[in-house]
Predict the 3D structure of the following.
Amino acid sequence: MESIRTSAIAAAFAAASVAIAGQPQDAGPILSAARAALGGTELETIASFTVTGTVAEISGPMTTSSSIEIKCQLPDRFLQRMQRSISRGPLGSFDMTIFEGVNGDEPIHDVVAPGAPFPVWIPAGPAPRTPAEIAAAKAKQARLFKQAARRFLVPLFAAGTGADPLQFKALPQITLSSGPADVVEAAAADGSILRLVIDSSSHRPIRIKWRDRPLVTISRSSSVIVRGGQVQQPPEAPVLPSGDPTVGLPDAEWEIAIDDYRTEDGVTWPHRFTTTFDGKRYREVRLGRFRLNSAIDPKTFAPRR
């Protein structure tokens, strides 16, 4: 079974090389050097990995911290699980767990917060009703989660996977404060495009760039009522927004800075990913040790909502 998996991964790398070579502006030498810097042929032996770490999300003056676990079974299973504790001041706190990922073409999404006194996940717009609406919403969700997985995996492998082939082309070299950098554009079958920035000296990916909807933060002021020494919630129910708040807004420039490279088990992978949009710092992910080719229970990727 392991030899079959390894052959499949090697075939995916070979297919990626063929696609690269056919581009008008050949990105092959740039990506080949990047793969050599990341682990070379050792990358082709990776069938799965698991890694844990922490996430800090910044929204204005407030920072929310979570633990994160990422599990990936190549070529098309990817799951991110985040867990955080939500404080309500004198009203106590509750735990929330967020699952996001894909199992092939099936989206994985769930928000579990059994002790939450209010909705912790607000859908953007009314729930789909007809079979066509449900299918369209499911396909959109799967596409978004695949794009998120791609932005994590491309810097690790400097290639697409067999289930997510990418067309690469080289763009003009740029100069950063750290020195010259190569730029490779990756186009996916769903029409999305990202740019991989690679340090020309170390040949390691240092940034991922793409354009997408801006981040809109929705907040609600709240108060408490104290009666007889006991803290109570106000009687009125929160008013939740309806519709997609980003409609009509121009796309933002998103970027993930990639650093803190460490060599473990023959591969040299980054352990810090810092996300910004329009120059505003939004999220920082710090990861621990990657566990390569560890067994992952298939039920882990069972589609949820």
